[in-house]
Amino acid sequence: MTFEALGLHTSILKALTEAGYTAPTTVQAQAIPAALQGRDLLVSSQTGSGKTAAFMLPALHKFASAELQAGGRTSNQERQGARARGERPRFQAAQPKMLVLTPTRELALQVTTATDKYGSQLRRVRAVSILGGMPYPKQMQLLAKNPEILVATPGRLIDHMESGKINFDQLETLVLDEADRMLDMGFIDDIEKIVAATPETRQTMLFSATLDGVVGNMAKRITRDPMVIQIAGSATKHENIEQRVHFVDDLSHKNRILDHLLRDESMDQAVVFTATKRDADTIADRLNIAGFAAAALHGDMHQGARNRTLDALRRGQVRVLVATDVAARGIDVPGITHVFNYDLPKFPEDYVHRIGRTGRAGRNGLAISLANHAENMNVKRIERFTKQLIPVNIIEGFEPKKSASAARPSSRKPGGWKPGDNRGNAAKPGQRTFSKPGAPRKEGGFGKSTRSDDAYGARRSYGDR
Ligand code: AMP
What we know:
Blueprint: H1 10-19, H2 26-36, E1 41-44, H3 51-69, H4 75-84, E2 98-101, H5 105-118, E3 127-130, H6 136-144, E4 149-152, H7 154-162, E5 173-176, H8 179-184, H9 188-196, E6 203-208, H10 213-222, E7 227-230, H11 234-237, E8 241-248, H12 251-262, E9 269-273, H13 277-289, E10 294-297, H14 303-314, E11 320-323, H15 325-328, E12 336-341, H16 348-355, E13 365-372, H17 376-386, H18 404-407
Parallel strand pairs: 1-6, 1-7, 2-4, 2-5, 3-4, 5-6, 8-13, 9-11, 9-12, 10-11, 12-13
Bound molecules: adenosine monophosphate.
Adenosine monophosphate binds near residues 21, 48 and 50.
């Protein structure tokens, strides 16, 4: 399958060639033809599967065709011309043709950047992000340009709708990106309100890790005869990401293991996930003291600081990002070789999103969870969700006092995972597979924990939602 065969406009094909894309991904090959026919879509796929292009390329194709018909003249130019002739009132709300709703600011910015890339050859298509945390005057300036595409987080968008700065009378395409996450984050009422403000004639495309439960119910209400696309490809199963779990006795043991693994020569960049914003800050500080170029990323940081941190990560100046779930969602940095679950996620879905920060753009990645023995049940819940067993790994010199098999009897039972089950490089207890032989081991890590909850099996395990 080629992009040409999908019938996309030549200006888009040119942009894709410049981006270095040679063939559509599975989700693109399935979604683009249906979207081009104007069908509503319900797509279950993960970040990393190429879903942004799956919804954005058909939309850009429509813009490109309209541009051609209008002789390169856009509704925005017509609006400006009319304004110059004094035909319109002074204030006009922005009237986008396409709206993409995302759960987080980072994902919104990523979608906007991807849109600029895919639409680089289109003369008049402007994509703008409307995000919480961004100064209102700046957003008013952006909206005054009447962008064709809005990429927004729901809360801030509602503010602008209510103050009359945006109306959706002209909206043709609505995309809900990571819909499951938006619902998890409590955006259901905002989404319903936004959808109600859009024309019923719109095309709706919903992307989500799962199409079951609440997401499925909402999807039924807001789509018409949708084509359902379930992608169970390697990106969803994360077959290119090796997963491991290390059982730890206490926080000090956990910190020593993390410190050791971060010093591995195979590591380029890493994301360390914590349950709380405070821990993200504390651990980033500790890692910096220990000599790693580390930075925290969480929802209490101003958008400017978050953007600077992400830029530094993309440029390779930050090697270890210590982040909460919400802040790290949508990060797409090919240099991330390792993901660490310093704290296990509250929801198994978050595990899938977390590990998807590595193994980007067809590379391999390593996802390591550091779990307390009491969290064995949580590891099993993740395994049930992903339908993959996570091999237990023990590093020589860092063995837990309790044996791993005591923590995970099921993984040793017949019918459990076998070496070679979806992970050729699964480690056996006692086998040190991660560090290169003879790699220097620095004991002691970044010091003893100052967290008061060393028996942290009982602590809450969720992020900045
Ligand atoms: P997404 O799932 O949209 O976040 O995309 C994940 C990554 O895959 C991004 O870095 C995209 O630039 C890249 N990508 C998307 N589509 C393709 C394609 N057809 N060929 C190569 N890379 C792609």
